[in-house]
Amino acid sequence: MNISIVGSGYVGIVTGIGFAEMGNNVIFVDVDPGKIEIINKKEPPIFEKGLKELMKKNKEAYYATDNYIDAILNSDITFICVGTPSNPDGSIDLSQVMGAAKSVAEVLAKKDDFHVVAVKSTVVPGTTEEVIIPTLEKHSKKGAFVDFGVAVTPEFLREGEAVDDFFNPDRVVIGSEDERTRKILDELHSPFKCPKLFVDLKTAEMIKYASNAFLATKISFANEIGNICKKLGIDSYKVFEGVGLDHRINPSFFRAGLGFGGSCFPKDVKALIAKAERLGYNPKLLKTVLEINDMQPAMMIDLLKKHLGNLSDKRIGLLGLTFKPDTDDIRESRAIILVKQLLKENAKVFAYDPVAIEKFKRLYSDVEYASSAQELVDNVDAVLIVTEWREFENVDYRGKIVIDGRRILKAREAKVYEGLCW
Ligand code: UGA
Fold first, then answer.
1. Residues near ligand 1 with C-beta < 6 Å?
2. Check: CATH 3.40.50.2000 for 2-201?
3. Residue 255 alpha carbon, nearest atom of ligand 1
4. pLDDT by residue (tens digit) across 99-128?
5. What's the average model confidence in pLDDT over 231-257?
6. Alpha helix (H) ranges present in 282-321?
């Protein structure tokens, strides 16, 4: 099939290259000339395991452009994959989605063939029906479900594992209202052997939010139990090993510690809270999930003070700046909260990350950066482990004070070792 992808962030690029690998032709549309150039050089615009190889392998099957006319007229399906960041009140900012829908619609006005617009950007339940379809209809002067198809096809890709997740999904969710669109998307997804769920538009939107909200809840639950375990001298990882063996519960996403960051969980939980409140419902559980998540970095600082006392002029080393390993993404990273607090307390902050130092420098130039994890550990009064990069298992921590937010086993050799929830 011929596919166009609007927005080449990690969801857009992985989805497009994934479909190219499955034998489809793909056109990426982006407003960023830098990204277009990189993609057309057949290089990944982001750091994502396995992507570079796939882009080389399928180099004849895709190209990037800023030209919507070219992209829409030469494809049968358009996936909207642009960002949906948070507004200051936590609700989602739909400006990029609306911009994309308007640009697509202006070309649909000139296109005779049936075309499917599939929303892959994460949008709160009701958005496609209430906002995106009216925009498409207004600017194309055509009717949804009749002249063109509309679908919601949420993604469940983890950064760092996105390529693998694309090819091995647990499920494919297709939200649509008309038979023709459903058939086209069913065919496109036919190589996937996992369960396929066909639902209406807003159910598909809610499946995405409920999935992320549940995973965030699971982490905050693990952290709450972990915080109680810490007070009792119990290793919460042992507890969750026992808990996770119950098949109704499942062992994953119980890694207690510093909590969740990234571009998805914090934003999506906030957006769902904002939506619920607008509907007149107070989502108490979801609010507490965020509260517990915000507490974890503060607990780490408390443990640090237990051993160092006043932090003024103390050299504190942060191991890891990204929101999780195997990505260069620092959005909502726990490192940001920790650095802010440490600088507020007049500590001298030293930091190391295998890939994200340059990005972090743009936010914090008053932090000193080490060129290796070992250099950092050797030159500080205490170490905070913020991200579980594999290489942190090869550092010599002997003689040091280490507060571990991510459970690096080797760090237990430190003179003083404190796990956040164990
Ligand atoms: C998350 C979901 O896992 C994906 O399914 C979803 O598609 C994606 O959001 C999205 O909405 O686009 P991602 O944010 O890339 O993916 O990362 P995760 O691997 O889920 O980790 C999120 C955060 O939770 C990280 O900061 C991680 O350190 C933290 N985490 C995860 C824990 O603190 N404990 C755990 O047990 C698991």
1. 122, 155-159, 212, 215, 219, 253-255, 257, 259-262, 264-265, 323-324
2. no
3. 36
4. 999 999 999 999 999 999 999 999 999 999
5. 98
6. 284-308
